[in-house]
Amino acid sequence: MTAIIDLKILYESNYLQWLEETIKCLKARQLADIDYENLIEELEYLAKNEKRRVRILLEQIIRHLLLYQYWDLEKPRNANHWAAEIIGFRNQINEDLSTNLRKHLEDNFSIIYSDALDYVMAKTKLTNLPESSAYTLEQILDKNWLP
Question: Closest Cα to residue 105, out of 67, 43, 52?
């Protein structure tokens, strides 16, 4: 029981050391010594951040696809930049996209598209943008696809 109290105190005073000690306890299967309350909180935070990270990347890709496809006035000057941004964001999202994170994107696709659409509409004042996505998730993630 002392280890739990010590780990809880350590969590508040030295997060990195708490993390290292928690990993040691897990590897040694010293489950009684684990600070479960803070470990659960950290794991929930980690999952939330990973979901947010892939949502942001997907939104960035959609924004740039919309700009690339619909903003004809700016396309001659910016098409290469937008295409490069799409490639960069795709590389980032595809690097760590797990089955669970992909499912999260599928489940939230319409909201993510709507957020991207709001941004592009505010930036461009275009009125010819589709209210719902003309792109599939597979197309958006395909490194060789552009509209």
Answer: 52
